[in-house]
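Lay summary. Proteins are chains of building blocks that fold into shapes, and those shapes determine what they do. In this project we predict the shape from the chain. Here is one chain we studied, written as its sequence of building blocks.
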Amino acid sequence: MADTKVNSLDDAVHKTNVILKEIEEEAGLPDREAAYRALKGVLITVRDRIPTEPATQLGAQLPILVRGFYYEQFAPARQPDTVRSKTEFLTRLAERFDPDDALLNDPEATTRAVLAVVGRHIDPGEAEKARHMLNDDLKTLWPLAA
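And here is the predicted shape, written in a compact code that computers can read:
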């Protein structure tokens, strides 16, 4: 565990590492760095697809470190993105990765894994509200909580 001598920061690092470890395992990724890139890419792509209010409600549920990169380059005036299909969503997500990135091997499975893990770590009602903002094709990427 990080030892910043600030309990809230240590807790944020710990929570973020738990999420990254779960994503790494669930998505079969090679390391935490890949899990971080997957988490960031998926969350930002979802954030940009849903209206501003649900996007900010989702952001408020995330651990503070995750929330920081979730809001990178956030432009509420451009919400929501016009992506409608799963193919468009996955293409937009792939644009966030290096062309040689292993995450591109199966971006759909990676997206499902990331959203399943995130869904377990935030309020189920808020996860469902964000998921509800997606059209039916995109909802298939966000597994329902068990």
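What the prediction tells us: The helical segments are 7-27, 32-49, 52-61, 64-70, 86-94, 107-121, 124-132, 136-139.
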